[in-house]
Design goal:
Layout (H helix, E strand, L loop, with lengths): L1 E15 L2 E8 L8 H8 L5 E5 L11 E7 L2
Antiparallel strand pairs: 1-2, 1-4, 2-3
């Protein structure tokens, strides 16, 4: 089973040496017809924070990302 969430990138921090980290929070909308409102109703709180060293991985503050979670 896969659970899909939708998060907004709040910040990207460059720690030097190729290491970066990202902070994300759930999307929000008060528009009942918005996809973000449907995601907010299912996932109204939480955060994602992680670091990486792969230069090909790019996140941009203000952009929204789907996050799929499945058992490993």
């Amino acid at each position: 089973m896969t659970t899909r969430c939708k998060f907004k990138c709040e910040s990207v921090t460059d720690h030097g040496g190729g290491k970066r980290s990202v902070a994300m929070n759930p999307v929000y909308s008060s528009d009942p017809n918005s996809e973000n409102k449907k995601f907010w109703d299912a996932t109204p709180s939480g955060n994602i924070n992680f670091a990486w060293i792969n230069d090909r991985v790019k996140f941009e503050p203000g952009k929204e990302y789907y996050v799929d979670i499945q058992e490993a």
